Amino acid sequence: MLVISIQSQVVHGHVGNSAAAYAMQAEGVNVAAVATTLLSNHPRYPSLRGRVLETELVADLLRGVEERGLVEEAAVLVTGYLGSPGNAAVIADFVERARTRNGKLVYLCDPVIGDDGRVYVADGILDVLRHRLLRTANLTTPNQFELELLSGAAIADAESLSAACAVLAGAGTDVVATGCTLADTAAGQVETILCTDGRLSRFATPRLPIRPYGTGDLLAGLIAAHLAKGEAMELAVRRAVDTVFAVLVRTQDAGSAEMRLVPLPTAERKP
């Protein structure tokens, strides 16, 4: 079982592959992790070192992945934070080649764009996501803001969320919408909602008074790991949500600004 995971990497903290790779390995899945950035930490801190990796370097690493036969071996391919429009383009090229070379490969696109009404990626990345990567994806995991931006529709209730997902799912893409608060969401709860074939499966957890970075990256990585192990989509999402919530509870109890991932909590194993 192998997942190819293409996203950011940091020295301190848990975002991008620095959240997802360990979690996937802890679930018993091998990971080929390709970095799009190499940073000292996420931008919440008062200083930030490192940089977005050069497009030529990212393209070279992806060619190495192909030369080692990892595309044919992989069960799931994940993309997250892309870093630059140039990186987005060469990653889209790689995804298209990979899907051609391995017809069984499941592609999970985490469309990292922004949150809380703010776009924080470079100009040009949104176009690659919308016109290339999402059209190729089997599954995408936007937060509510990203889903609204990509679909062009405001989300207030289950009906409008279903309509927004349908815009992204025109080519058969399943959608996992994260961080959702809808009109009928219970007070004090936040929801992760799977939309597949027009049907919604809703997973609610208590809303905790903390917002560590990387929870979406962790969730996407865990879903990928469970899918790589052959689990059905709904069960994969349920187990990923349970694990992320357990990590957040531990993080809150520790009073930590960074997620407390180690050791990874064991998700509920009942179907």
From TrEMBL:
<dbReference type="GO" id="GO:0008478">
    <property type="term" value="F:pyridoxal kinase activity"/>
</dbReference>
<dbReference type="GO" id="GO:0005829">
    <property type="term" value="C:cytosol"/>
</dbReference>
<feature type="domain" description="Pyridoxamine kinase/Phosphomethylpyrimidine kinase">
    <location>
        <begin position="75"/>
        <end position="255"/>
    </location>
</feature>
<keyword id="KW-0418">Kinase</keyword>
<dbReference type="InterPro" id="IPR029056">
    <property type="entry name" value="Ribokinase-like"/>
</dbReference>
<keyword id="KW-0808">Transferase</keyword>
<dbReference type="InterPro" id="IPR013749">
    <property type="entry name" value="PM/HMP-P_kinase-1"/>
</dbReference>
<dbReference type="Pfam" id="PF08543">
    <property type="entry name" value="Phos_pyr_kin"/>
</dbReference>
<dbReference type="InterPro" id="IPR004625">
    <property type="entry name" value="PyrdxlKinase"/>
</dbReference>
<protein>
    <recommendedName>
        <fullName>pyridoxal kinase</fullName>
        <ecNumber>2.7.1.35</ecNumber>
    </recommendedName>
</protein>
<dbReference type="GO" id="GO:0009443">
    <property type="term" value="P:pyridoxal 5'-phosphate salvage"/>
</dbReference>
<dbReference type="GO" id="GO:0005524">
    <property type="term" value="F:ATP binding"/>
</dbReference>
<keyword id="KW-0547">Nucleotide-binding</keyword>
<keyword id="KW-0067">ATP-binding</keyword>
